[in-house]
């Protein structure tokens, strides 16, 4: 059964500039995007900054009106039945906003339970259940100002789940969280999906999307570029293998262009590291280019060189560069 149906949804904004705002410019933030999310699915919406991810979510949770197309959440129209949509969804965003730092986690959850109209007869039981799900049992009486960022994000999720929404929107929930906190947050999301909650997730961390998502849609410049499972996206990447070469210091001038011109090379990326540069070279299936690449580097000191299969991040970069 379908939980979210997005049918050609669009959103434009009008910007004014000049001394008296006489010059007008129409900016398209989301351009005819369509996709579906099934009940119980964890669906990822990926894209660079400014691609239209958050704008899409805000239209789906009825905070923004579409200027074209439409969408339904759990069968409710996001424009005509906005109240029904809001009663059945939860929304969690990245950052520290949305909680009262001087209150304890328990007092925060009791306050938001009142706002969500959670019946008093089940409120305490529901809060206890959520504290267990997000791993904050035993810490609920502590002030939120003493929580780590990861703990705050898990409390955000508990807040968003108080009214037992069937669909949860997570907008970059792990941004700025340390690796341990991010792992705990991912485990929390997995437990929510196991309980039957439908989750729509945006993230900039490709390993996170690869680990969590059943399906992924990539959006760029407001348009949906590709959709599929993480495995399908990786298989669509033009490169069948990735050759990584770490060079001490800087890559010689002109070496990158020489490597890119090799017949079985699809793309070349350069990443600055502490005291070195890492070349990421997308190659054709079965290509053995180590000797050719080393020749292009013209004797530059190489720390390491090895071949690995493409990751979701490699596929994502190729998809974005091609769109």
TrEMBL record:
Keywords: Antibiotic resistance, ATP-binding, Nucleotide-binding, Transport. It is found in: Cell membrane. Residues 4-246 form the ABC transporter domain. It comes from the Bacteria. Pfam families: ABC_tran. This is ABC transporter ATP-binding protein. Transmembrane segments: none annotated. The keyword ATP-binding applies. It is a peripheral membrane protein. The lineage of its organism: Bacteria, Bacillati, Actinomycetota, Actinomycetes, Micromonosporales. InterPro entries: AAA+_ATPase (IPR003593), ABC_transporter-like_ATP-bd (IPR003439), ABC_transporter_ATP-binding (IPR050763), P-loop_NTPase (IPR027417). The keyword Transport applies. GO terms for molecular function: ATP binding.
């Amino acid at each position: 059964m379908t939980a979210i149906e997005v049918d050609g949804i669009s959103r434009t904004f009008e910007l004014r500039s000049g001394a008296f705002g006489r010059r007008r410019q129409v900016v398209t933030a989301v351009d005819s995007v369509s996709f579906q999310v099934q009940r119980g699915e964890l669906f990822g919406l990926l894209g660079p900054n400014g691609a239209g991810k958050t704008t899409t979510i805000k239209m789906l949770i009825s905070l923004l009106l579409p200027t074209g197309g439409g969408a339904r959440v759990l069968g409710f129209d996001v424009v005509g039945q906005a109240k029904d949509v809001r009663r059945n969804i939860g929304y969690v965003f990245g950052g520290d906003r949305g909680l009262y730092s001087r209150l304890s986690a328990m007092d925060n959850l009791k306050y938001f339970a009142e706002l969500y109209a959670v019946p008093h007869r089940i409120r305490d039981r529901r809060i206890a259940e959520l504290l267990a799900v997000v791993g904050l049992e035993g810490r609920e009486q502590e002030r939120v100002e003493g929580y780590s960022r990861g703990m705050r994000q898990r409390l955000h999720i508990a807040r968003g789940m108080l009214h037992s929404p069937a669909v949860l929107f997570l907008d970059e929930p792990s941004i700025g969280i340390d690796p341990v906190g991010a792992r705990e947050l991912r485990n929390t999301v997995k437990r929510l999906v196991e309980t039957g909650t439908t989750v729509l997730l945006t993230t900039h961390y490709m390993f996170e999307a690869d680990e969590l998502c059943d399906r992924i849609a990539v959006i760029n410049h407001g348009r949906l570029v590709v959709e599929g499972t993480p495995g399908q996206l990786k298989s669509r990447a033009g490169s069948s293998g990735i050759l990584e070469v770490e060079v001490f210091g800087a890559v010689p001038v002109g070496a990158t262009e020489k490597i890119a011109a090799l017949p079985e090379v699809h793309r070349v990326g350069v990443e600055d590291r502490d005291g070195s540069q890492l070349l990421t070279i997308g190659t054709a299936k079965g290509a053995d280019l180590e000797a050719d690449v080393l020749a292009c580097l013209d004797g530059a000191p190489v720390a390491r060189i090895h071949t690995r299969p493409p990751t979701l991040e490699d596929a994502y970069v190729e998809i974005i560069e091609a769109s």
